[in-house]
Amino acid sequence: MLRSLLLGSSFAVLLAAAPMAASAQNSPDIAPPPLEFTHRELANGLDVYAMPDATAGTVTVTLWYDVGGKDDPQGRSGFAHLFEHILSRKTINLPYGQISTIVENAGGSRNASTGQDFTNYYETVPPQYLETMLWTHAERMARPVVDEAVFNAERDIVKEELRQRVYAPPYGRLGVFVIGDNSYDQSIYRRAVIGSIEELDSAGIEDARAFHEAYYRPSTATMIVSGNFDPAQLDRWVDQYFAGIENPERPLPVLERPVSAPRTEPRLVTAYAPNVPLPAIAAIFPGPDASSDDNAALDVMGAILSRGQSSRLYRSLVYDKQVAANAFMGSNVEEEAGVVTAQVTVAAGKTVEEAEAALNAEIARIRDEPVTAAELAEAQTELLASDLRQRETSSGRAFMLGQAIVAEHDPRAPDQAVAAIRAVTIADVQRVAQKYLDENARVSIRYLDDSQRPEGVSEDSWKNPATVPTYLSVPPALQAPNELLPEGQRQAPPAPGEARPKAAPEIAERTLSNGLRVIVARSTDLPIMNAQLVIGGGSSADPADRPGLADFTASLASQGAGGRSATEMARALEGAGANLNSGAGADSSTLAVSAPIASAAVVGDILSDVVENPDFAPAELERSRTRTVNALTVALRQPGPLASQVLTRIAYGAAPYGAPGTGTPASLRALTREEIEGFHDRWWRPDNAALIVTGGMTAEEGFAFAERTLGDWARPAGAVPTVANRAGSATAPRIVVVDLPGSGQAAVAAAVRGPNRADPSFYPLAVANAVMGGGQGGYLFQEVRAKRGLSYGAASSLGARSEAGLITAATQTKNESALEVLDLVLAQFDRVRTEAPTAAQVTDRETFAAGNFSRSIETTGGLGGVLAEAVTVGLPLDEAAAYAERVTATTPETMAAATGLLNSDQAYVVVVGDSRIFIDAMRAAHPDLMLIPAADLDLGSPTLGL
C-alpha cells in the first residue's frame, strides 16, 4: 500500500493508472509512471530484482533481510539494530571500516537501517563500481568478522545514537518510548527498535554471532539493483558472488505470536521528561497491518486530517483556535499490525486540556460526519503527487520496491494501491474512521516537563501496564567465528569497470523585459516540475534590531495573496498536488514550488500573487508570529540547533551574517506590518530575482511558464539595493559554553572563517573539508566515532556564502565526554593544516566530494538548489556540470595553500549541554571559556546578552 505517502517508507510498481474516482475528476490527472523490474530467484533462495535505467548517473544496490526489531532476542532489545552496525564494518577480507572507505573513494554513499520487520544495507555509487558493491554484500552475508573490538565499538556508537535521537531532542522520549511502548500490548512490536542502554549493555559477542547465524542467509534476503547497468552482466555477477553461498542447515527461529486481547477500556498516560519547552499530547488507536484493504482509505483520512495547511487539524488546532504549535494524525503499519496515532504540540500559553478538547472534536467529526467531495479529491491528489516525486531517482524507486516486498510480500502491491487510492469514497473514509478511531481502545498521552512531575510519581510512570511478551532466545552459533585474514591472504575487491554514459541536464537562460532572469534546466522525463524564485538580499539585509525580518516576510507572503486567504491558497495548492516553501538564507530569499506539470497553470497563478500581491493581513501576521515563536522555542531547546545559532553569532558578531536568520522570540514579537511591507517593496523586484525551473519542462515550456507567471511583475524605479560588508571583520576566537539543564547530550561545534563561494580556493577547501569531516572516511568520524565510540556521527561542512563562509565541525556526545570530544574536534583542524596529504588521499577525497555533488543534482529540487546557489553567489551556470572537474583539479600543493586558515587557535567554539557534568574539567583545560545559562542567552545581541 502507499504507506510512504504519510510515513516516509515507500512501495513499488505502478503498472497501470486507473481513472480517478468520480469525486476527484476535477483534480489534475496525476498518473505515476510504472516501475519496471525483472525478478529471479537463485537456488539458495536469494531473490534478485533488477531495475535498469540507462539515463541514471548512478547505480543503487540494496539488500533487505527478513529480520528486524521484532526478532530481537529475549532481554536484548535493540539487537537487530546493533547487528546492522556490526555487519557494516568487517569481513575476512575487509578490515574494520573498509567498506565505507571503498564506497566513499568511489564517490558513492552507503548506509543501513533497521525497522521492526527488516534490516537493509544499501549503497549508491557510479555504475562502474557495481561489481565491487555486489562483492561487499556477499562478504557480509557469508564472511563477516564479529570480534570483541567490532562489537564493543559499535555498541558504544549505538548508545550515542540513542542519546542523540531520543534523549537530546525534547520530544524524542515521547515518540520512541512513550508512544512506542503504549502503541501495542502483547505484541511482537512492543519494544523500541533502538532498544535501551541497559539491554545493550547486557549483550555479549556470542549473542551477535548467534544472531547472524540464525537470521542472515540467502533465503532471508532480497537484493534490488536499480540504476545504470547491464542486466545480463548483473546476472553473471550475482551468480558468481552469491549462488555458492549456502543456507545453514538449521531452520530459522520461529516465535509463536502472542495474542493481544482487544482493548476495551481507554487509558490515560502522563509522562514527564527533562527539557520539554511546550507540552504535548497524543492519542493512539489500534490499526491494521500492511496488507489490509483499509489502508488506502486510512491514507486518505490521514491526508484530510493532517496533510498540509488546508488539513482539518491544521486549520482547527493551529490556525483557528491556535491551541497547537503543530498537529499530525496518520497510520503506521507493519507487516503484522499497525497503529493510528495523533500527536500535538501544545501552543505556548495554551493548556493541555484546550488542545485535547480541540483534537477530540476533530476525531469525533471525522467519525460522525462525512468528509466533503472537495476534501476527498484534494487528499487523493496530494497522495498521488507525493508518490510521483518518490519515483524521481533510481535509488528512490529501489526503496519503493523493497518496502513493498518486506511489508506485503508482493512487489506489485502498489498497482493495487494506486487504484485503491483513486477509488476511495466518502463513505470509505467515514467507515475506517468509525472502525479504527474507537474511543474504548484509545490510549491518551500527556507529555510534560519534568519540573511538573509530582513528588512520588516515578520517572517511568508512562510505561504500559500490559505484560511484555517473552521473546525467543536464539540458539548459540555452531560455526567457528571468522577472523580477518592476514594482509597477504586477503581477496582484493573487484576493480571498477568502464564508466557508463549518463544524461546531463539541458540548461537554457533568458531575461524577461522586466529584468527577471529565467533559467530552465530539463532534467527528467517525469511530468514534474520545480520552480525556485531567488530574490537577492536574504537575512543579511535584516535591520540589526529586527533579525528574522526577511525570513518572516517570505513565510508570510504565502499566507494570503491576490484575494485568496491563507486557507484558500493552501487548498488550491494542495488540491493541485503542489508544495510551496519559502524562507530566507543569509544572501537571498527563496520561494520554491514543486508540482506535477499538469498543475503548472494553477501553481503559476498562485506564485504570481504571492510575489506581486501578498496581503500581509494583520490577522495572518499574528497567526504566523505565534506559530514561528512556538517553533523557535522548541528549536532553541535542542543542543545541536542552539549550538549552531550561537556559533554563527560569535563568528560574525555584529555583522549582518551574525544575526539569527530565523529571528529571536523578542525580534519576531516586535515586527510590524509596515516593516514587512517595506522589506517586500524594497527587495522583492524582478531585476533582483531569478526564476529557476527544473524537471520535465522543455526550455520553451519553462520560459512560457515564467512569462505567464511573472512577466507582468513591475520593475520599480531606482537602483537595486545592496548589503555592504555582510561578513564584517573577523572577531576574536573564543569558547562559549551554554548550560542547558537536562539536555540528554552535549553538542560540540567549532568553526573558522573561510572564503566566499566564488573564490577559487573554495574547491581545494572542499577537498580539505572532505579530509577533515567528509563522510565516514573523514578525520572527525574516524577519531570521534570509529576509534572511540563517543558519538553517533561527527562531520564538517564548508559554508557557501557571497562573503566569508564558515568551515564548521560539529558533533554530539554524552555530557561526560564533552571535553574529550571538544579537544578531538579542535585537533582535526590542525591536523588537516599540518599533515600533508598524499596524492592518493587527495584523489580519494576529490572523488568523494565530487560524488556527493553529483548525487545532489539527481532530483529536480536538488538541481534547482545548485542553480539557485550559483545565482546567489555569482557563479556561472555551468557549475552544475563543472563542479566535479574543478574539485578534482586539486593537488596536494593547492590544498596545502588553501588550508592555512584551519588553525584551532583561530576557532570559534560552542558547547551546549548539561554543564554541571563537565564544566569543571572543561574550565581547567580552557580557562578563558564563557559560561552562559540558556535562560539568559540573547541571540539578538552581538554579545549574546552579556
Automatic annotation (TrEMBL):
Domain annotation Peptidase M16 N-terminal: ranges: 53-163, 518-659
Organism (species): Brevundimonas subvibrioides (strain ATCC 15264 / DSM 4735 / LMG 14903 / NBRC 16000 / CB 81)
GO function term, MF aspect, one: metal ion binding
The entry's keywords: Hydrolase, Metalloprotease, Protease, Signal
Every Peptidase M16 C-terminal domain range: 206-383, 671-842
Name of the featured protein: Peptidase M16 domain protein
Signal peptide region: 1-24
A Pfam family it matches: Peptidase_M16_C
Family: Belongs to the peptidase M16 family.
Region (Disordered): 450-470
UniProt xrefs under InterPro entries: Metalloenz_LuxS/M16, MPP/UQCRC_Complex, Pept_M16_N, Peptidase_M16_C
